[in-house]
């Protein structure tokens, strides 16, 4: 068997096994050494290929697509520095637990470390940021090697998505010639539809003894708080809500918890905690006897202060699989179980719990006071807060919001109030970077459901080339660009008092007219100066095809004053109506 046939059958069996194991999408950045894999992906009838030229943008595009579909997405690039451009998105995928199958083409072994072009050391390139690395064997097509290539493909998919999902990396050394021969018969191997390595994973539960011991401990407590941080389990909202109502406890719901939107009961939800936790007095007033947290640490820095100041409070963290997400370092009991199942186990235990009947009411009253102020605050001009509030009034039901980091996610935390709309909220909160946000949002929109991306001007600047995918594939996406001409979040930090160096080092205004970039990528561009105008423009954008960018201009210093006045007013309102 000549080499070209061996190459074709080896690669084709690998790609076919990815499809049989559940992969539907691959993001390809063109290059020469990756030709066998790229052409074979394009030829396979069950895998959709997305061509994104820049590798950094491609990796974030795949990240957003994987977040939206909750399925592993493959990334494919050529050798050399192309592989290094994947790194930021791989780090984000690792920390935010997103399944990616990273495929890097490489020079064969005889061309490594000899000065050959586009040859760098790609072995374990991504270090500890991938769940598994494997250097693939050189292509052969014996029965043994066909089984080998299929087993590695199946293992890659299963490893990426099982337990805590994350990225895996397979490195492919490939010799020339690189063009597959698709005229060969039966290149996809056998006709079976089952994966080469079927894997069945059971739901993790706790023993009756463990549940009983936890409830026994809680019986001595009177005031508890349930916290739901960033998480993606679609079934968790109902289960956590039912547990909170059965126990009469408040639920502090992060904007990425998927609990602020949907059809479940909202009676025990506390969305305004970030606003009133900004007061040290209120943090002390609301000290709990225990905290039960589902998901990752909430976005709110004020909540971080709350936990830091109450290190003696008993804390339980419920995670589906083993891991450590407790940045404060407080003494914590970790419960590794399926959230839905463990909620049911708590309620089915047959043990009665009697907590302080006034405790939930206090939280609910404070939350109503905060929400009333958040909903009623108005100005003659658009602020960053009122911009985000207006967005939630018109965002379509059954859609997704992809939110950028820094100020954008914090305003979503404040102004995203509970709604019966079904809104899936996504963000790159694993490493909290501002790079790749446009590509991630457009990747999520590639799935076909309506997506609104809200971000700041620096995030937009960092990833303008991500707009090409929207143009190339006519992807429908609305981008709400909040432009305060710089890094607005730094204006809230102590660095803002260092006026001599602040603008150059932290404010970093770019003074760009983003309309020209939107025009270059074939999008429609709009601006708004009032809440009513913004709501009208956003509503119209959802009826447009392709890329639509709505830009709002704000002032960083005015934004700080506006937010601080809002938080101060909320504290005053609570003191006058709740704490007398």
From TrEMBL:
Pathway entry: Quinol/quinone metabolism; 1,4-dihydroxy-2-naphthoate biosynthesis; 1,4-dihydroxy-2-naphthoate from chorismate: step 2/7; Quinol/quinone metabolism; menaquinone biosynthesis
Record's signal peptide: none
Cofactor remark: Binds 1 thiamine pyrophosphate per subunit.
Thiamine pyrophosphate enzyme N-terminal TPP-binding domain sequence ranges: 14-124
Biological process according to GO: menaquinone biosynthetic process
Enzyme class name: transferase
Residue ranges annotated for the Menaquinone biosynthesis protein MenD middle domain, each copy included: 217-403
InterPro entries named in the record: DHS-like_NAD/FAD-binding_dom, MenaQ_synth_MenD, MenD_middle, THDP-binding, Thiamin_PyroP_enz_TPP-bd_dom, TPP_enzyme_TPP-bd
UniProt keywords, alphabetically: Magnesium, Manganese, Menaquinone biosynthesis, Metal-binding, Thiamine pyrophosphate, Transferase
Cofactor (UniProt): Mg(2+); Mn(2+); thiamine diphosphate
Reactions the enzyme catalyzes: isochorismate + 2-oxoglutarate + H(+) = 5-enolpyruvoyl-6-hydroxy-2-succinyl-cyclohex-3-ene-1-carboxylate + CO2
Keyword Manganese: yes
Record GO terms (molecular function): 2-succinyl-5-enolpyruvyl-6-hydroxy-3-cyclohexene-1-carboxylic-acid synthase activity; magnesium ion binding; manganese ion binding; thiamine pyrophosphate binding
Domain annotation Thiamine pyrophosphate enzyme TPP-binding: ranges: 438-552
EC number(s) from the headed UniProt entry: 2.2.1.9
Pfam families assigned: TPP_enzyme_C, TPP_enzyme_M_2, TPP_enzyme_N
HAMAP family per record: MenD
Role summary: Catalyzes the thiamine diphosphate-dependent decarboxylation of 2-oxoglutarate and the subsequent addition of the resulting succinic semialdehyde-thiamine pyrophosphate anion to isochorismate to yield 2-succinyl-5-enolpyruvyl-6-hydroxy-3-cyclohexene-1-carboxylate (SEPHCHC).
SUBUNIT field: Homodimer.
Family to which the UniProt record says this protein belongs: Belongs to the TPP enzyme family. MenD subfamily.
Protein name, as recorded: 2-succinyl-5-enolpyruvyl-6-hydroxy-3-cyclohexene-1-carboxylate synthase
Organism: Oceanobacillus limi
Gene from which this protein is expressed: menD
């Amino acid at each position: 068997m000549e080499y070209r046939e061996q190459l074709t059958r080896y690669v084709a069996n690998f790609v076919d096994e990815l499809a049989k194991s559940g992969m539907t999408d691959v993001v390809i950045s063109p290059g020469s050494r990756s030709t066998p894999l790229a052409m074979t992906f394009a030829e396979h009838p069950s895998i959709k290929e997305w061509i994104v030229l820049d590798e950094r943008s491609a990796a974030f595009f795949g990240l957003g697509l994987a977040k939206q579909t909750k399925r592993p997405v493959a990334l494919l690039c050529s050798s050399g520095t192309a592989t290094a451009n994947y790194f930021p998105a791989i780090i984000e995928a690792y920390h935010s637990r997103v399944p990616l199958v990273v495929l890097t083409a490489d020079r064969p072994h005889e061309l490594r470390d000899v000065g050959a072009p586009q040859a760098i050391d790609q072995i374990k390139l991504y270090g500890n940021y991938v769940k598994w690395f494997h250097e693939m064997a050189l292509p052969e097509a014996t029965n043994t090697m066909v089984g080998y290539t299929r087993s590695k493909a199946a293992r890659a998919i299963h490893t990426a998505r099982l337990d805590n999902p994350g990225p895996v990396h397979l490195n492919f050394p490939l010799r020339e010639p690189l063009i597959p021969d698709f005229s060969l018969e039966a290149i996809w191997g056998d006709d079976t539809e089952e994966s080469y390595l079927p894997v069945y994973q059971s739901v993790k539960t706790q023993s009756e003894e463990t549940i009983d011991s936890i409830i026994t401990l809680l019986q001595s407590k009177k005031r508890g708080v349930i916290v739901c941080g960033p998480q993606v389990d679609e079934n968790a909202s109902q289960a956590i809500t039912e547990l909170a109502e059965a126990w009469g406890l408040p639920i502090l719901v992060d904007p990425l918890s998927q609990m602020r939107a949907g059809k479940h009961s909202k009676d025990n939800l506390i969305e305004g905690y970030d606003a009133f936790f900004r007061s040290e007095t209120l943090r002390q007033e609301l000290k709990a006897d225990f905290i039960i947290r589902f998901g990752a640490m909430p976005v709110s820095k004020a909540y971080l202060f709350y936990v830091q100041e109450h290190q003696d409070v008993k804390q339980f963290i419920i995670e589906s699989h083993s891991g450590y997400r407790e940045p404060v370092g407080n003494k914590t009991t970790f419960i590794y179980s399926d959230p839905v199942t463990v909620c049911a186990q708590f309620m089915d235990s047959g043990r009665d719990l009697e907590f302080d009947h006034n405790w939930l009411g206090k939280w609910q009253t404070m939350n109503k006071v905060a929400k009333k102020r958040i909903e009623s605050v108005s100005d003659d001009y658009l602020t960053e807060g009122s911009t985000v509030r207006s967005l939630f009034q018109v965002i379509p039901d059954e859609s997704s919001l992809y939110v950028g980091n820094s100020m954008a996610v914090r305003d979503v935390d404040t102004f995203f109030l509970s709604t019966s709309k079904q809104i899936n909220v996504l963000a790159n909160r694993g490493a909290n970077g501002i790079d790749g946000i446009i590509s991630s949002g457009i990747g999520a929109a590639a799935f076909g459901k309506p997506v609104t991306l809200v971000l700041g001007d620096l995030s937009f600047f960092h990833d303008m080339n991500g707009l090409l995918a929207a143009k190339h594939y006519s992807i429908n996406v609305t981008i709400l660009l909040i432009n305060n001409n710089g890094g607005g979040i730094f204006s809230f930090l102590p660095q803002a008092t260092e006026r001599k160096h602040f603008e150059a080092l932290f404010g970093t205004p770019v003074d760009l007219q983003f309309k020209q970039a939107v025009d270059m990528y074939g999008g429609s561009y709009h601006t708004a100066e009032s809440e009513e105008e913004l709501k009208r423009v956003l509503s119209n954008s959802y009826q447009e095809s392709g890329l639509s960018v709505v830009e709002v201009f704000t002032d960083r210093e005015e934004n700080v004053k506006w937010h601080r006045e809002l938080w101060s007013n909320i504290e005053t309102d609570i003191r006058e109506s709740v704490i007398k």
